C-alpha cells in the first residue's frame, strides 16, 4: 500500500492537459492582437493627430499620437532596442511559458501578454519610418494619463493576472500550487508521521 508521502507526490504530479490551455492562449492572443490592429487602423483613418474626440465625455477620449519610445513616450530614439526586447520577450514566452502552460487563468494571462507585446511589435516592424524603428499608434486618452492603445491595456491586464496567479493564488503555469521548501518539507513530515 502506498505511503501518504507517495500519495501526496502522485497527486501533485496530476496535471491538466496542455492543449486546451495552449488553445486558449493562442486563440486569445490572435483575437486581441487583431482587435488592437483594427483599432489602430480605424484611428489612422478617422482621427486627426493632436485633436481629441470625446468618446465617454471627458473620461475617455480618442486622440491619435505616434510613439517612438516605450511606455509614456520614454526612450524615444531607442525604438530598435524596444523592438529587439519585444522580439526576445515573444521568443521567451514561446520557449518557456507555452510548453509549461496548463492552467486556464495562466492561459488567459499569456494570451493577453502575447497580444499586447505583439500589437506594439507589429507597429514597430511595419509602420514608418522603418522596420524595427516604426512608431506605435496610440489612440486612447484618460484624464491626467498618457495616451495609450489596446495593446497597452492587454499588457497591463496580463500583469495583474500574473501577479494574482503567482502571489495571491500561488499557482504555477501548470496550475500546481506553489510551495516553498519549508512548507513542502513540513507537509511531507506530517504525512509520514
UniProtKB/TrEMBL annotation:
GO biological process terms on file? proteolysis
Q: Which UniProt keywords apply?
A: Aspartyl protease, Cell membrane, Hydrolase, Membrane, Protease, Transmembrane, Transmembrane helix
Tell me what topology the record assigns in the membrane.
Multi-pass membrane protein
Q: Which InterPro entries match?
A: Peptidase_A8
Instruction: Please give the superkingdom of this protein's source.
Output: Bacteria
Which cell locations does it reside in? Cell membrane
Pfam family for this entry, one: Peptidase_A8
Q: What is this protein called?
A: Lipoprotein signal peptidase
Amino acid at each position: 500500500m502506498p505511503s501518504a508521502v507517495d500519495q501526496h507526490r502522485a497527486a501533485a504530479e496530476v496535471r491538466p492537459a496542455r492543449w486546451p490551455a495552449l488553445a486558449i492562449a493562442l486563440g486569445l492572443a490572435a483575437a486581441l492582437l487583431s482587435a488592437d490592429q483594427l483599432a489602430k487602423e480605424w484611428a489612422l483613418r478617422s482621427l486627426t493627430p493632436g485633436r481629441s474626440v470625446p468618446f465617454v465625455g471627458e473620461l475617455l477620449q480618442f486622440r491619435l499620437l505616434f510613439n517612438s519610445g516605450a511606455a509614456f513616450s520614454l526612450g524615444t530614439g531607442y525604438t530598435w532596442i524596444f523592438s529587439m526586447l519585444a522580439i526576445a520577450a515573444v521568443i521567451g514566452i514561446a520557449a518557456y511559458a507555452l510548453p509549461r502552460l496548463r492552467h486556464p487563468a495562466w492561459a488567459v494571462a499569456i494570451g493577453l501578454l502575447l497580444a499586447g507585446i505583439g500589437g506594439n511589435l507589429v507597429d514597430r516592424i511595419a509602420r514608418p519610418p522603418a522596420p524595427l524603428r516604426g512608431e506605435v499608434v496610440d489612440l486612447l486618452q484618460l484624464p491626467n494619463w498618457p495616451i495609450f492603445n489596446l495593446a497597452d491595456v492587454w499588457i497591463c491586464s496580463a500583469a495583474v493576472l500574473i501577479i494574482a496567479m503567482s502571489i495571491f493564488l500561488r499557482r504555477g503555469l501548470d496550475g500546481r500550487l506553489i510551495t516553498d521548501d519549508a512548507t513542502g518539507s513540513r507537509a511531507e513530515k506530517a504525512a509520514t508521521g
